[in-house]
Amino acid sequence: MKKFTIALIIALPTIALPMISAAAADVVSNRQQAFSSIEEVSKQVDSELNNSDVDWLKVGELSEMLVEHGDVLNVSFAEADTGGKAKKEIWSKPEKFNQLMLQMNQGFAELYQASVEQDLSSAEQGLNSANKTCKGCHRTYRSRW
């Protein structure tokens, strides 16, 4: 029994480390997919808001997707989830990053609420607010390489 315990203690790091690495890779992949989808869906919303006859049901569905992607991103930047194109400042100086993420998500929530109320001005304001935080965040926290 003692030999088995010692063997397990020795083998555990080699078994667990790949699992941890795979989980971290999944988180990075999920956040990259969320960011890509945010970019695509934001363009769709912008296009819809520029139509003379806005399809508010479609804007509502798209804005719900944006809110959900924001929720994914809120849990995708734990210290163990490094990687991708994110700069280390996200983890070493998270205050501004977290503030920008919150502002982005508030913009998406405002967009969603405006779609429920069918308020074009508020919808545009919510989308513009979220898009501005995306640009500011990329300049500060996203590596070009």
Automatic annotation (TrEMBL):
<dbReference type="GO" id="GO:0009055">
    <property type="term" value="F:electron transfer activity"/>
</dbReference>
<dbReference type="InterPro" id="IPR002321">
    <property type="entry name" value="Cyt_c_II"/>
</dbReference>
<protein>
    <submittedName>
        <fullName>Cytochrome c556</fullName>
    </submittedName>
</protein>
<dbReference type="GO" id="GO:0022900">
    <property type="term" value="P:electron transport chain"/>
</dbReference>
<dbReference type="GO" id="GO:0005506">
    <property type="term" value="F:iron ion binding"/>
</dbReference>
<keyword id="KW-0732">Signal</keyword>
<dbReference type="InterPro" id="IPR010980">
    <property type="entry name" value="Cyt_c/b562"/>
</dbReference>
<dbReference type="Pfam" id="PF01322">
    <property type="entry name" value="Cytochrom_C_2"/>
</dbReference>
<feature type="signal peptide">
    <location>
        <begin position="1"/>
        <end position="24"/>
    </location>
</feature>
<dbReference type="GO" id="GO:0020037">
    <property type="term" value="F:heme binding"/>
</dbReference>
